[in-house]
Amino acid sequence: MLAKVIARNAMALGAFAIITTGAIAATYLGTKDRIAVEERAAQARALTEIITDDQHNNSMLDETVMLDDNSLLGLKQAKPAFIARLDGEFVAAILPAIAPDGYSGDIQLITGIYADGSVAGVRVLVHNETPGLGDKADRKKSDWVDGFAGRSLGNPGIEQWTVKKDRGEFDQFTGATITPRAITKAVARSLEYFEANKALFITDQAQGEQQ
């Protein structure tokens, strides 16, 4: 009798698992296309916060240069850089980068860089910094990242691409130095990478190329 009860319960659990798995699979299949569309739209919005619609008329999401893992950018796997063009002319590249020395680990960001080597804008995408302190790097929390706009490797000189506490040019947050220091240095490294690989981004055959 006990064996029959156990067998019956096991069959019931098995049937429940199959039904649940099927329901989850059906839900995923029914929503994955919508999720993909929404993710693409969110990514497009992040790019156009840096290079606005009046500055380009190509699809930045569809014109990319894949960058392999790279110590200068801090990348641990291949990621796309996005190209902005206006009537076919190169306007800017938006480069991915990772600042590995944040207070709570890696900080993922993108930096838009114009053809003349100046910063179009910076956005922090992913971080685990302390709420109320390090999270001020997030554009939703403060406008601190706007301080990079218009700067370049010559403005200021590379030795001043750090926070004022380190005798650099850029403000730190009240009560937090590690996060802004890490981001500032990551932006400087992005500028250095762009300068060293400028032809890679400006070429008309940018899409699909790899570095």
TrEMBL record:
InterPro entries: FMN-bd (IPR007329), Ion_transpt_RnfG/RsxG (IPR010209). The modification FMN phosphoryl threonine is found at T177. It is a single-pass membrane protein. It is found in: Cell inner membrane. Its cofactor is FMN. Its main location: membrane. The keyword Transport applies. It is an enzyme of class 7 (translocase). Its EC number is 7.-.-.-. Residues 102-194 form the FMN-binding domain. Keywords: Cell inner membrane, Cell membrane, Electron transport, Flavoprotein, FMN, Membrane, Phosphoprotein, Translocase, Transmembrane, Transmembrane helix, Transport. It comes from the Bacteria. It holds the Pfam family FMN_bind. Belongs to the RnfG family. HAMAP family: RsxG_RnfG. Part of a membrane-bound complex that couples electron transfer with translocation of ions across the membrane. PANTHER family: ION-TRANSLOCATING OXIDOREDUCTASE COMPLEX SUBUNIT G. The complex is composed of six subunits: RnfA, RnfB, RnfC, RnfD, RnfE and RnfG. This is Ion-translocating oxidoreductase complex subunit G. The lineage of its organism: Bacteria, Pseudomonadati, Pseudomonadota, Gammaproteobacteria, Cellvibrionales. The gene is rnfG.
